[in-house]
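User: Here's a structure from my thesis project, written as structure tokens. My advisor, Dr. K., wants to see whether a designed sequence matches the one we expressed. Can you design one independently, without my sequence as a hint?
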């Protein structure tokens, strides 16, 4: 592993694009993403094959609607039964870890990458990345942005258009910019949706 790539993955400042291993990994991700984005709705098996090649690891059941973009892919781990709608972007200069049964609405951005606030350091080309972790049974509404270093708990619903800048605990609905907990998910929610399911079946 090159020094800049090692710095990138360990949360230190790094220069993007000067590490040959990182450049090769980025080119690989762009090639696989481009091929994936050029597939049609009749290429389901090919799409799954390309995604499994693109990411570090995935569950058996994974579906992403093209177009989709990522920096490296190999720093992203996705669990079982994953779905992402159109125009999602995963910037995985640091690890992205996604649990089981996660749904992403259209234009969800998961961004581990950041730039220094200080203009002189930023203009020198240095940047950083902090890992993002998303738990099981999470629904992320469309146009949500998840920022570097955030951990999202299990059984979380994030309202569309949210900007997640801080960790979210288990079993909550969270919304807004900056994203904040709106309320807990309770037994009453389970009862309500069970009744709706039964009403559908009658």
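Assistant: Designed independently from the structure alone:
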């Amino acid at each position: 592993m090159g020094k800049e790539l090692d710095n990138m993955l360990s949360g230190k400042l790094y220069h993007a694009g000067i590490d040959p291993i990182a450049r090769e990994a980025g080119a690989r991700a762009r090639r696989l993403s481009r091929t994936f984005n050029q597939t049609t709705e009749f290429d389901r098996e090919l799409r799954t094959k390309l995604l499994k090649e693109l990411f570090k690891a995935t569950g058996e059941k994974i579906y992403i609607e093209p177009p989709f973009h990522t920096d490296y892919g190999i720093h992203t781990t996705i669990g079982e039964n994953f779905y992402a709608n159109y125009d999602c972007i995963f910037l995985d200069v640091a690890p992205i870890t996604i649990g089981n049964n996660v749904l992403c609405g259209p234009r969800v951005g998961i961004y581990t990458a950041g730039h220094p606030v200080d203009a002189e350091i930023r203009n020198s080309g240095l940047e950083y990345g902090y890992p993002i972790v998303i738990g099981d049974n999470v629904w992320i509404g469309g146009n949500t942005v998840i920022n570097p270093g955030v951990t999202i708990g299990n059984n979380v619903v994030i309202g569309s258009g949210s900007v997640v800048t801080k960790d979210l605990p288990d079993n909550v609905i969270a919304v807004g910019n900056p994203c904040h907990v709106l309320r807990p998910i309770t037994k009453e929610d389970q009862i309500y949706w069970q009744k709706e399911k039964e009403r559908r079946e009658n």
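When you compare it with your expressed construct, this may help: The two ends are 59 Å apart (CA to CA).
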